[in-house]
Each structure stands twice: as structure tokens, then as C-alpha cells.
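User: Before I run my own analysis I want an independent prediction to cross-check against. Here's the chain; please return only the C-alpha cells and, at the end, one sentence I can use as a sanity check.
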Amino acid sequence: MQVIDLNIYELDKSSTRKNVPCNSNMCKQTQCHSSGSSCRYEVEYLSNDTSSSGFLVEDVLHLITDNDQTKDIDTQITIG
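Assistant: C-alpha cells:
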């Protein structure tokens, strides 16, 4: 079985990433500091008082099917 390192995304090196604006439908932020400001997020988890916070970004995820009919697929994803 092949092991895949899922910690390979480097935000600074992506040429296709875009910040999600605060006024986007994806953003649950209730107030924007300015029209061009980025969307902040915060998630609190139930385990051990842990949380995650930062800014949402959109990027392109490049996938390749793993069967006899290999296909390349690019899809937009939102990362926080």
C-alpha cells in the first residue's frame, strides 16, 4: 500500500490560490472591515479545547484517476 503525505500543500508556493473575500457567499463572517478584506474563520473542536482559526482561501486541486481510463480533473476547493 502506498502512503501519501497529505501535508504537502504550501500556500506561499501556489500560483492559483485566492483569498476568499469577506462578502463571499462562502464566508460566514458577520461584519467585514472593508469591502476587500479576507474572510476569517474560527472552529472550536470538542476534543481537548482545541480550535483552528485563520483566513479562507480558494485553490485548484489537481486530481488524477487511478484506473484503466486515466483522467486529469481540476476542481476548486476552499481551505481554512
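Sanity check: The mean pLDDT is 83.
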